[in-house]
Write a structure and sequence with these properties.
single chain; about 70 residues; 3 helices; about 60% helix; EC 6.1.1.4; ligase; Leucyl-tRNA synthetase; leucine-tRNA ligase activity; aminoacyl-trna synthetase
Length: about 70
């Protein structure tokens, strides 16, 4: 039988939690920025180029966020 722990121990240090929060925020910003760049790159392609990739223009956002949102 497997046991899974869903909580994390921070040791109660204010600074650890504070800097961890800032780090997580910066990671989210960088991930969002790379996705926006990918959307812009795909939008700049012609319909023929998108067709070769198997993507319709209306599905670009869905394609870029396919691992985050199950639409």
């Amino acid at each position: 039988m497997a046991h899974v722990q869903t909580t994390t121990a921070h040791g109660g240090n204010f600074f650890t939690g504070f800097f961890e929060g800032i780090f997580n925020f910066l990671v989210r910003i960088s991930e969002a920025n790379s996705r926006v760049k990918e959307i812009e790159r795909l939008n700049s392609m012609s319909d023929a180029q998108l067709e070769k990739l198997g993507i319709e223009r209306t599905d670009i956002v869905r394609h870029v966020f396919r691992d985050s949102f199950y639409i």
